[in-house]
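Side project, low priority. Logging it here so it doesn't get lost.
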Amino acid sequence: MIDLDELDKVNDLVVEGEEFDIIPSNVDMFNLEPQLITAVRNKERLAMALDHLEGSYDYILIDCPPHLGYLTDNALLASKNILIPALAEGTSVRALEILLDQISTLENAYEIEIKKLAVVANRVNPNNQAKEMMEWFNKAFKDRVPIFEIRKRVALQRAWSAGVSIFAHNESCDMEGKFTEIADYLEGVDFNE
């Protein structure tokens, strides 16, 4: 994403899979953010690279780092949509406020709308703190976007460690239906409106 003449090589990075294709993360991404600071069109590089992507994709999901910066800005500007993941913990309140402020800043600066699609509460434990956070999510987002609750499950952690989806993992999990529900919801979203 640094060399403008290399953006068309994004196709060389695609790893085809049974369930979906992926462009895997790389340790070199760690150094990308500081390099983007001085790059020309530093918040548009991902969109420019995706313009070169060959093949027919119904959806492109971009997994961002867990902090705000040039990589997250690139993802937001390239997609103009966000599925908001959040832990059901008290620290998420301030993090979400900062994220929503950053989205508003990008919308104003680039004169676009970044559509908030849904909130996915991750690793939800059956405790009072998680219950309070789910109540906060419902109060803050319920009238605007759906809220999906993914409970903490060892099978999800094992699937992640194995580098496969929960559907390809050899261990069943009661959260599979929730992921299907999220996918079904996203399939029904009109991304052109």
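Brief comment: The helical segments are 29-36, 45-50, 70-79, 91-110, 128-141, 154-162, 176-187.
Revisit when time allows.
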